[in-house]
Amino acid sequence: MTITIDDIEFKELLESIRFIYGYDFTEYAELSVKRRIVHFMKNRDIYALDKLGKMLLKDEHLFEEFVQELSVTVTEMFRDPTFYKSIRERVVKRLATYPVLRIWIAGCATGQEIYSIAILLKEENLLDRSIIYATDINQKSLKIAREGVYPLGSMKLYTSNYMEAGGKRAFSEYYIAKYNSVLFDKSLRENVVFSPHNLVADKSFNEFQFIICRNVLMYFNQDLQNRVVNLFHESLCSFGFLGLGDKESLLFADKKDCFEETDKKEKIFMKMK
């Protein structure tokens, strides 16, 4: 059965969610949100948007699953290996000049990016004096990230990515395999602060030397992208770095002239003013 989403009902649903739960999806890219809602409805044999709305506003557990669907959770360790290689070659030397290094991974999803950065910092002798703030809107994803348990079947890809990213050790040294899962070493998350944070509504909460937010802005409309870039600009120290996804840019951001390209291809920028 085909599901058609009426524009008025769609906007009413998002406004109701914002009013009842405080989650604001009204400035997410509309086509992406509609596609995810349709997928969510089909998987649960719900074929009317008004029925979905009533169910979401009554059932908090269902709503958590709905947020999981709308949140960006597609990730892997050392995804786009050349991005991490560029961090080693172009960013690490300056980061090493700070006595305490604060890194914000915004939209950390299920945590693979956290452990990738932690491993890189460990190999560059920076992890012990780093604090990694890992935030996401999705509480279920944060729980997975805290636990650091991932499918054993993913390790072949993760190992390949790690080696391409300039890894210096055997990747298997960082985890213990048991049954069909692996548990990453607890030392990698000892300096990680896991916390919910909503890029749409929440403010800056610290000053950082490096902010990584990859493949998140692409799901926002242009106005929201601009506001989030302003948030990152406010949160970065002078000469701090910002890392974005390969399909994202600062081209239309108000603060674009405040940044200089550190690596144009890998979308790494330095705050200059």
Automatic annotation (TrEMBL):
Domain CheR-type methyltransferase: 1-260
Family annotation (InterPro entries): Bact_Chemotaxis_MeTrfase, CheR_C, CheR_MeTrfase, SAM-dependent_MTases_sf
Any Gene Ontology biological process: methylation
GO terms for MF: methyltransferase activity
Keywords: Methyltransferase, Transferase
Domain of life: Bacteria
Keyword Transmembrane helix: no
Protein's UniProt name: CheR family methyltransferase
Species annotation: Ohtaekwangia kribbensis
Top-level taxonomy: Bacteria, Pseudomonadati, Bacteroidota, Cytophagia, Cytophagales
